[in-house]
């Protein structure tokens, strides 16, 4: 029996949104043991949170630099193998870079960095390090999203001609109209979040979803963003037209002021032979459409699904897969890579997805600021 992979966690304290998703997901397939962490910037909070969730406190460190320094003193057989970076965006780059330079593998939250330049530096750092790097575009872990990717790859839709992705949330509505609240939210602070709020936070998931499911690269974009208030420097809503090679086109709509919306990510892909439609809030149903057959609904766990999709289901059909399972599938893929086991293409988003994401975010803001002009992606 393989030993558990030694996992470190940065950020994701008890006060965070995403920490619990990573902690639970890392345990779902019995592959990881959390051995070290810096959950919060304050040491007392770190220790008390570790005690609360029953993680030994001897490797709970006062800050990130101390974690690296102390872990490097340990024999390799005891040292953290992979670290999850779950802090606000501006810390992803310095943390991930130093981790790679010291030989650790990294599971990094999105957006991978705050600038495209940093993303490319990280890519070069990974090439030298030769360790494993994943970006947690969580929704790629859903069995039916994986099925979409495989069906498109197998040609089930024919030639892709239209893509429509929407990611609507409403949580910023009560924040944005209150001057005090909007100046104290880190996602609206360029120092902490980077140059974009909506596109950087959720538009980037939608962009990744397009490239993950279609296997095609977006070639150029034109963006129209909304900031609502003059003192708000960060987009909170926007529409992006996308073009691929040939005549395939699409639209990416993203908003954090879509009042009342929760986590409304949805994608539809249309080819000359058929269409696929999937919604994150109803993730176990993949709608398969064609000109001449009744609507079909694909569900997880059935033998008609692809290997990539089936490798992401743990129970027989009828047991719904949710967001924790989706993230767990990414952790599973990373565990296979760390152990040198075979894994499917698409089991976890790579550094390239992170680099593409930053190319998208910066191009989107540039397009808007240049008066809604077309920008070619690298
Ligand atoms: N994959 C997804 O779907 C998804 C969803 C939500 C958030 N995220 C990403 O996860 C990251 C965190 O988002 P969140 O909503 O959990 O943020 P949050 O503000 O809720 O939590 C951030 C956590 O980081 C800790 N932290 C801050 N500075 C630190 C430091 N110097 N050292 C150690 N810990 C520190 C905070 O104490 C807190 O526990 C962001 O990059 C965000 O974009 C991804």
Automatic annotation (TrEMBL):
Domain Gfo/Idh/MocA-like oxidoreductase N-terminal: 6-137
Domain of life: Bacteria
Entry-linked Pfam families: GFO_IDH_MocA, GFO_IDH_MocA_C3
GO MF term list: nucleotide binding
GFO/IDH/MocA-like oxidoreductase domain sequence ranges: 145-277
PANTHER family (UniProt xref): CONSERVED EXPRESSED OXIDOREDUCTASE (EUROFUNG), OXIDOREDUCTASE
Name under which the protein is recorded: Oxidoreductase domain protein
């Amino acid at each position: 029996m393989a030993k558990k992979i030694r996992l470190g966690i940065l950020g994701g304290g008890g006060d965070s949104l995403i920490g619990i998703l990573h902690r639970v997901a890392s345990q779902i397939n019995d592959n990881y043991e959390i051995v070290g962490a810096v959950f919060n910037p304050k040491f007392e909070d770190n220790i008390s949170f570790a005690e609360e969730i029953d993680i030994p406190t001897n490797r709970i460190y006062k800050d990130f630099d101390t974690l690296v320094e102390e872990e490097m003193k340990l024999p390799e057989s005891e040292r953290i193998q992979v670290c999850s970076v779950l802090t606000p965006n501006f810390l992803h780059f310095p943390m991930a870079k130093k981790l790679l330079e010291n030989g650790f593998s990294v599971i990094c939250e999105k957006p991978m960095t705050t600038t495209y330049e940093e993303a490319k530096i990280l890519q070069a750092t990974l090439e030298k390090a030769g360790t494993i790097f994943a970006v947690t575009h969580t929704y790629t872990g859903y069995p039916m999203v994986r099925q979409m990717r495989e069906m498109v790859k197998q040609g089930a839709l024919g030639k892709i001609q239209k893509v429509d992705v929407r990611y609507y949330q409403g949580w910023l509505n009560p924040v944005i109209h209150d001057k005090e609240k909007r100046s104290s939210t880190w996602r609206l602070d360029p120092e902490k979040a980077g140059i974009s709020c909506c596109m950087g936070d959720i538009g980037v998931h939608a962009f990744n979803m397009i490239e993950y499911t279609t296997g095609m690269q977006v070639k150029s974009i034109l963006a129209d963003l909304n900031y609502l208030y003059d003192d708000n420097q960060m987009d909170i809503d926007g529409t992006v037209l996308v073009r691929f090679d040939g005549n395939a086109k699409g639209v990416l709509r993203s908003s954090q002021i879509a009042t009342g919306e929760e986590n409304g990510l949805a994608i539809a892909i249309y080819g000359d032979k058929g269409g696929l439609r999937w919604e994150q809030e109803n993730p176990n149903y993949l709608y398969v459409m064609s000109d001449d057959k009744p609507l079909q609904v694909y569900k997880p766990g059935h033998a008609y699904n692809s290997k990539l999709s089936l490798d992401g289901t743990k129970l027989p059909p009828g047991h719904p897969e949710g967001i924790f399972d989706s993230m767990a599938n990414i952790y599973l893929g990373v565990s296979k890579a760390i152990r040198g086991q075979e894994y499917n293409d698409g089991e976890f988003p790579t550094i390239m997805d992170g680099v593409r994401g930053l190319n998208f975010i910066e191009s989107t803001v540039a397009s808007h600021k240049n008066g809604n002009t077309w920008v070619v992606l690298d």
